[in-house]
Amino acid sequence: MSLGRMEGKVAVITGGASGIGKACALRFAQEGADVLIADLVAERCEAAAEEVRRTTNGRALFAETDVSSEDDIAAMAQRAMDEFGHIDCVVAAAGVSSASYVSGSSSSGDGGFNGELLNLPLESCNRVLDINLTGVMLTDRIVARHMVAQGTGGSIVNIASSAARVPLPGAADYSVSKAGVAMLTHVFAMEVAQHNIRVNAIGPGFIATPMTQGLQDDDEGRQMMLGMTPMGRLGTAEEMANTALYLACDESSYTTGQTIYPNGGLYAG
Ligand code: NAP
User: Fold this and answer.
1) Structural domains of the chain, count
2) Has residue 79 been placed in a domain?
3) What residue numbers bound the domain in which 160 lies?
4) What confidence score (pLDDT) does residue 23 get?
5) Mutate to test the pocket of ligand 1, among 26, 40, 157 (most ligand atoms within 8 A of CB)
6) From the CA of 136, how far away is ligand 1's center (Å)?
């Protein structure tokens, strides 16, 4: 259902070619937003932008972007400014579950939970932090600089994880990166509140996207995810997009510095 919650707004979405990011692009465009999809592989960005154009009335652009590169993010944000004239919202969804993970492939059948810290190579650990934490920090501040300059405020939605608060053995780098995103969200919210920029985060539980495909395909992995989730099912990317929509639009106009955990009750016990 569309109520025009994002009418007149421009949203930049990293990781927008797949999973939660793509669901946000589609949902925001249904609500009237123009979107710029930023992701690693141009062809997949283009396909996602085309899907947005085909299924909604929104304008959709894309920019091939590696969020671990400050130059890439700056160029991506500039493209949104040049083409749309302003940026009102960013969803920082680009992420990896481990340095060896390739989205859409189940090659890392454990979903990335096999990197015990005792044996984790430093380069691999740094790669996860560069994308999941530094990438979000760079995205947030580069986009926020445009928001400050345009003087109209804005909304930043970071995608953290329930792993920010639940230790996942075998995924120290991932868990730490997501705990960092949650804290970054809180600190940055305090710093930019004076500019009417709100900064919030989502900490999804286990969601059915390419990132968890390896776990979904593995009996033990699936049981692990369902066993930790009182609602007894995985979440959907669309459910995450609905939560992101609330934080992005004016319905949450007095909410900043919060992390919402849509996780099927994973924290309930
Ligand atoms: P996904 O389908 O794999 O989407 C992640 C997207 O980010 C992919 O398109 C991926 O590209 C892209 N990406 C990876 N590295 C990048 C980089 N350096 N620069 C730009 N884009 C990059 O997974 P998802 O589940 O939607 O994940 C979205 C976010 O939600 C992630 O931050 C993830 O940590 C978080 N999250 C997911 C779950 C879950 O259960 N699925 C739970 C909690 C949090 P490639 O496909 O080319 O790698």
Assistant:
1) 1
2) yes
3) 10-260
4) 98
5) 40
6) 12
* Contact assessment for residue 235 and residue 263, using Cβ atoms and an 8 Å cutoff: yes
pLDDT per residue as tens digits for the range 228-260: 999 999 999 999 999 999 999 999 999 999 999
In a domain, 91, yes or no: yes
- Ligand 1 neighbours by CB, cut-off 6 Å: 14-15, 17-21, 39-41, 65-68, 93-96, 102-104, 131, 159, 161, 204, 206-207, 209-212
Question: For this structure, is 174 an active site residue?
Answer: yes
Marked catalytic residue, from 174, 246, 261, 267 = 174
- Residue closest to 128 by CA, chosen among 157, 155, 163, 104: 163
The confidence score (pLDDT) of residue 109 equals: 45
pLDDT tier at 101 (50, 70, 90 boundaries)? low
Q: How confident is the model at residue 103 (pLDDT cuts 50, 70, 90)?
A: low
Q: Which atom of ligand 1 is nearest to the CA of 22?
A: 26
Give me the CATH number covering residue 14.
Answer: 3.40.50.720
CB 97 within 8 Å of CB 111: yes
Note the pLDDT tens digit of each residue in 42-53: 999 999 999 999
